[in-house]
Amino acid sequence: EAQVTQNPRYLITVTGKKLTVTCSQNMNHEYMSWYRQDPGLGLRQIYYSMNVEVTDKGDVPEGYKVSRKEKRNFPLILESPSPNQTSLYFCASSLSYGNTIYFGEGSWLTVV
Amino acid sequence: GQQLNQSPQSMFIQEGEDVSMNCTSSSIFNTWLWYKQDPGEGPVLLIALYKAGELTSNGRLTAQFGITRKDSFLNISASIPSDVGIYFCAGQDTGANNLFFGTGTRLTVIP
Questions:
Q1: Is B9 exposed, middle or buried (0-12, 13-18, 19+ CB in 10 A)?
Q2: Cα–Cα distance between B99 and A98 in angstroms, integer?
Q3: Cα separation, A44 vs A93, whole angstroms
């Protein structure tokens, strides 16, 4: 089954404690991206990757890092999380940019 | 980032009624997309529009790509309870590498 898998789905953490949200897709997609969803703001893009070893900033990259060492994985790293990063995060992938985007189920992150 | 204004923000309708929502942008897009998000799930693509003036249907859903390329409309006919969810518009410019989302329309269908 074609899918985008994120982990963890739910996490409560403390300010400053580094965390990583993993994202994996099994569709051999080139394009992957991360979004955060906040009430009244819709989905905003954090980072995206056009292919392995190619990453670029989206609209709201501050406080986040990503890496794309292999095609299937695109982890989102919060080096020093802060409460304003409390949000619902979605990973997404598509065959290439411009094709149908498939979203993961989301990761609820709370930073206290 | 580019601003996409989506309206209405929320709707409460009776089962069987038709629904209309729209999305406007300050910039021109080459592609307009409409997604639906069910509770606890990621957004799922409903309709994609690639040409100004294009009108596309998917079952009870009909979407249009505005002539100005700065707006799009989604209509749902004869709503049913499973239409409940949040609907997002999204604009894509083939010259850039971003997909910009609207703020969403939360739809509640009352049986």
A1: exposed
A2: 9
A3: 15
| Rounded (5°) CA angle B90-B73-B89 | 15
> What helix, strand, coil percent values describe chain A, rounded to 5?
5, 50, 45
Write out the two tokens for B3. 């601003």
Each of the 111 residues of chain B gets a pLDDT tens digit; together they read 666 899 999 999 999 999 999 999 988 998 999 999 998 888 999 999 989 999 999 999 999 999 999 999 999 999 999 999 999 999 987 655 677 899 899 999 999
Q: Give me the residue from A41, A43, A98 closest to B94, CB to CB.
A: A98
Residue B47: half-sphere exposure toward Cβ, Cα within 13 Å: 24
CB of B88 within 8 A of CB of B37? yes
Rg, chain B, Cα only = 13
Q: Which residue of B has its CA nearest to A104?
A: B42
- Which chain B residue has the Cα nearest residue A41? B103
Q: Which residues of B touch A106 (CB under 8 A)?
A: 40-42
Helix (H) or strand (E) holding A103: strand A102-103
Between CA A19 and CA A27 the distance in angstroms is: 26
Whether cis (ω within 30° of 0) applies to the bond prior to A39 is: no
Distance set, CA B7 to CA A60, A97, B14, B31 (Å): 23, 27, 19, 19
Six-digit token pair at A45? 């893009």
**Rounded Cα gap, residues B34 and B72, in angstroms:** 9
